[in-house]
Structure formats: C-alpha cells, structure tokens
Amino acid sequence: MLGARRVNRLQSLADELTAGGCRALAITTDVTHYNQVKRLVDSAVQTYGRIDVMVNNAGLMPSSPLEHLKIDDWDRMIDVNIKDVLYGIAAALPYMKQQRAGHIINVSSVAGHKVRAGGAVYAATKHAVRALSEGLRQEVKAYNIRTTVISPGAVATELPNSVTEPDVAERIHKFYDEIAIPAESFARAVAFAMSQPEDVDVNEILFRPTRQEL
Ligand SMILES: NC(=O)c1ccc[n+]([C@@H]2O[C@H](COP(=O)([O-])OP(=O)(O)OC[C@H]3O[C@@H](n4cnc5c(N)ncnc54)[C@H](OP(=O)(O)O)[C@@H]3O)[C@@H](O)[C@H]2O)c1
C-alpha cells in the first residue's frame, strides 16, 4: 500500500510492482492530515486483512541558517518530518496491538545523530524521530510489536530539491552529486529489518556512503 501526494508517480510504481508479480495499491495521502494517514492504513487492513509493517518515510530538508528566519520551511519540516511519524503510529498501532504483531519503521537521518550549522531545524526533526522511536520501542514491547529507526547518510533521491535557499541548494546538490549512494541501499536496510525472524527486533540502523565523512 503506497501513500504520497503525487498519485501519478505512486501509480506508476504500483504498476511496476504489479507487473513484477506483487500486489500494490496507491492511495493519495498527505501525511500532514491524520485522517488521510488513517485512511491509508485502514485501506491496507481492508484490502489485505492485516498490517504487518508501517514505514513512516515522508520527509523534506529545506535547510538554512536559523538567522534567515525561514519560518514557513520550519513549519513544513515539523509538519511532515515529525507528524508523519506520529500520525503513522496513531493509525497503525491499534491494529498492531490487536494482532499482537507488527513492525513500525521510522526514517531519521545522520542528522538525527549530528547537528550541523545551517541544518538545525532538520536535525531537530530527525532527533525527534529517534526520540519517538525509542519511546515507542519501550512502550510496544508488551504487544509483540517491533520498531526500527533507519538513519541514512546521503542517498540519491529528490531530497535536495526540497532546499529553498539557492546557495544552500547549490552546495547540497554538489555534495549529493559527489557522494550519494543509490536508493536501493536504503531499500536493502528496510528489507533487512523486516526480514528478521519475529523474535529479532533490529532497533536502529545508521548507514552512510563509504566516502561520507560527516
Ligand atoms: N536522501 C537522503 O540523503 C536522506 C538522508 C537521510 C534521511 N532521509 C530521509 O528519507 C526520507 C525520504 O526522503 P527521500 O530522500 O526519499 O526524499 P524525496 O525523494 O524528496 O522523497 C520524499 C517523499 O516524501 C513524500 N512526501 C513529502 N511530503 C509529503 C506529504 N506532505 N505527504 C505525503 N508524502 C509526502 C514525497 O511524495 P509526494 O511529494 O508525492 O507527497 C516523496 O515520496 C525523508 O524522511 C528524509 O528526511 C533522506
């Protein structure tokens, strides 16, 4: 079950997966609205009868120095990067508690471990994701639910396009062009966490391009 705002992109991915022999459905979802995240999860349960894994992945990184006061960017990062995780937990947890099984995977970042000047708000949202994931881990043990937080370094995606400051954007595009690793590296980390036996809970994965120093 795939959720994001650009349904055309999602639908072509669902078609590709279906052509490869999988079942896949795309549902337009804006993660800043709890009712839309709930609809996504409810649809998954209605379609498949249960929910095994919830991946809370949506995020954006319009980094800039705090003194530039890019309040709209701060609001968007807080709304998407943090609330996506909270709303995803809220939508999936009741089903997983009932099933006494499930797995919630949240996406943080190297920026959830390290703060850099010019990236304080993004780092704050990604530290929040790690804090939420650790609290969740402790609270859902009793229900046999697994939790994983994945913190990638530079992965070649559209993320640098979310930077709104021209000079920062130029620097980040250059950095990504030089060292970012393919998105499959992230997919493999997700697959690794998901594919463990039920009694193994991989709580945290931090990975970077081999060449990434920070
Ligand atoms: N790429 C990296 O180097 C890197 C490193 C560390 C962490 N991360 C984290 O990895 C996650 C995925 O980012 P990415 O690298 O794949 O960036 P991306 O290529 O820009 O993808 C972002 C995804 O989030 C979705 N999204 C954004 N706002 C949304 C909203 N309001 N509602 C629903 N979906 C929304 C986008 O789909 P729509 O626009 O269609 O909604 C898109 O699928 C993020 O949490 C990011 O912080 C990435």
Radius of gyration: 17 Å
> Can you summarize the main beta sheet?
4 strands, parallel
The amount of helix comes to 40-55%
Describe the strand arrangement of the main beta sheet, using strand numbers. Answer: 3-4-5-6
Question: What is the percentage of strand-forming residues?
Answer: 5-15%
The number of helical elements comes to: 6
Order of helices and strands: EHEHEHEHEHHE
* Alpha carbon gap, first and last residue: 34 Å
Low-confidence stretches: none
**Morphology:** globular
Average pLDDT taken over every residue: 97
Question: What molecules are bound to this protein?
Answer: NADP nicotinamide-adenine-dinucleotide phosphate
Class from helix and strand fractions = alpha/beta
Based on DSSP secondary structure assignment, what is the total number of beta strands? Answer: 6
Q: Which short descriptors sum up this protein?
A:
214 residues, alpha/beta, 4-stranded parallel beta sheet, two-stranded parallel ribbon, 6 strands, globular, binds NADP nicotinamide-adenine-dinucleotide phosphate
Walkthrough of the structure:
The chain is α/β, with parallel strands linked by helices and 214 residues long. The protein is 48% helix and 13% strand. The chain has six helices and six strands; from the N terminus they run E-H-E-H-E-H-E-H-E-H-H-E. The strands form two sheets. It has a four-stranded parallel beta sheet with strand order 3-4-5-6, sandwiched between helices. A two-stranded parallel sheet has the order 1-2. Helix 3 packs parallel to helix 4. It starts with a strand and ends in a 7-residue tail after the last strand. The model has no long low-confidence stretch (mean pLDDT 97). The site of NADP nicotinamide-adenine-dinucleotide phosphate has 23 residues, from loops.
